[in-house]
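re: the backbone from monday

yeah here it is again, tokenized this time
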């Protein structure tokens, strides 16, 4: 488990029984499912129950709830929910409960906890690691529900930003933007005259410009990442560090992000797939908003046209890129953490191809097969299926 926050959690587990229980629950669940060992899976459930009980008790104490160990437990409980392999269908005892509902409940609770802890508690190395372990999950939650949560609305400037941090900051406003798109088109039925239609069109174009600004910033981010890769592996740099160079080849000027994403470690690869995921969701939503806005203008402002979108603002290429690298998530050296990180990118790409009627395409088959041809992929397949159902309902 190579996630940056895991070493910090392990450190806490050395001195805190509840964190240790939560960590053991995740480890035994993964190991149990990989080896088809039901005894380990049952043992994992016991550790989970103990950690959940003690975490809930701590959350009732306004002082204890703000401790690092509680946030660490909450983050591990989120991971465990992805490993449960329970039915995506609601249970007879509680129709509102299912795997995705349980996962979201933990995410929302953890987001609120981060907000209550405040910025100062996340400036230490341990605090930043725990913050980092939650924020991507929170962004996923916001994007999948098309509405921001307490975490994605935070406007905290961290002490230092790397390229992954900058990507997350670009993505932070997107859940609210998607929510604004939905509200804007919901209100179209209320337009009754020329004055209100003109105001509605102005608001729609303003939203479109806000979205285009984020799209352009994402493109600039990709260009900067490729520039950094090329500078790092330029001929002069290779001459200085050729004996340390782990890559199979230098990054050439013609290479794209797809070409280089698998040449580095899991952290870089995961960040690239997260980038494509955001582009897939955002570009598709911008296209839909643009089409709906133009249809509205055809009715109320005949002859006028919405601003033209660049051809590259399309969900197709990001979805294709995710499909092309899907198998890399399940390489033998990538581990369970990579399989867990595969669910969101692949689910959004699968939804794109399904929505366009291409379930029989090679790209769709490559992604579904990636989850069935490895032990780690099989573990996450149930959660993938569950979240795909949610995507179909909510999108």
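seq for it, each position gets an aa:
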């Amino acid at each position: 488990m190579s996630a940056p926050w895991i070493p910090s959690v392990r450190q806490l587990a050395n001195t805190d029984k509840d964190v240790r229980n939560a960590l053991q629950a995740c480890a035994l669940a993964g190991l149990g499912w990989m080896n088809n060992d039901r005894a380990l899976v049952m043992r994992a459930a016991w550790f989970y129950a103990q950690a959940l009980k003690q975490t809930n008790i701590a959350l009732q104490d306004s002082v204890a709830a703000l401790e690092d160990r509680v946030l660490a437990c909450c983050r591990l409980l989120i991971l465990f929910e992805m490993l449960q392999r329970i039915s995506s269908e609601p249970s007879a005892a509680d129709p509102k409960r299912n795997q995705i509902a349980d996962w979201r409940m933990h995410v929302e609770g953890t987001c609120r906890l981060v907000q209550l802890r405040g910025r100062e508690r996340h400036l230490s190395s341990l605090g930043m690691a725990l913050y980092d372990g939650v924020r991507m999950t929170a962004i996923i939650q916001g994007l999948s529900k098309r509405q921001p949560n307490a975490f994605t609305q935070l406007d905290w400037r961290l002490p230092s930003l790397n390229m992954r941090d900058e990507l997350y900051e670009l993505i932070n406003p997107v859940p609210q933007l998607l929510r604004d798109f939905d509200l804007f088109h919901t209100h179209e039925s209320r337009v009754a005259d020329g004055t209100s239609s003109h105001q509605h069109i102005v608001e729609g174009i303003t939203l479109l410009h806000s979205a285009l600004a984020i799209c352009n910033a994402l493109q600039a981010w990709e260009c900067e990442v490729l520039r950094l890769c090329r500078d790092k592996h330029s001929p002069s740099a290779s001459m200085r560090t050729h004996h340390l160079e782990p890559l199979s080849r230098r990054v050439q000027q013609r290479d794209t992000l797809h070409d280089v994403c698998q040449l580095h470690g899991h952290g870089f690869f995961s960040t690239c797939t997260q980038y494509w995921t955001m582009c897939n969701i955002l570009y598709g939503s911008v296209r839909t908003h643009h089409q709906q806005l133009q249809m509205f203008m055809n009715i109320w402002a005949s002859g006028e046209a919405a601003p033209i979108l660049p051809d590259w603002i399309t969900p197709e290429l990001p979805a294709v890129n995710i499909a092309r690298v899907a198998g890399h998530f399940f390489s033998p050296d990538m581990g369970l953490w990579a399989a867990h990180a595969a669910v969101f990118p692949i689910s959004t790409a699968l939804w794109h191809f399904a929505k366009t009627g291409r379930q029989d395409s090679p790209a769709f088959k490559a992604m579904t097969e990636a989850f069935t041809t490895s032990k780690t992929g099989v573990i996450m397949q149930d959660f993938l299926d569950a979240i795909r159902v949610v995507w179909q309902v909510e999108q």
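The chain has two domains: 6-157, 175-394. The chain has 16 helices and no strands.
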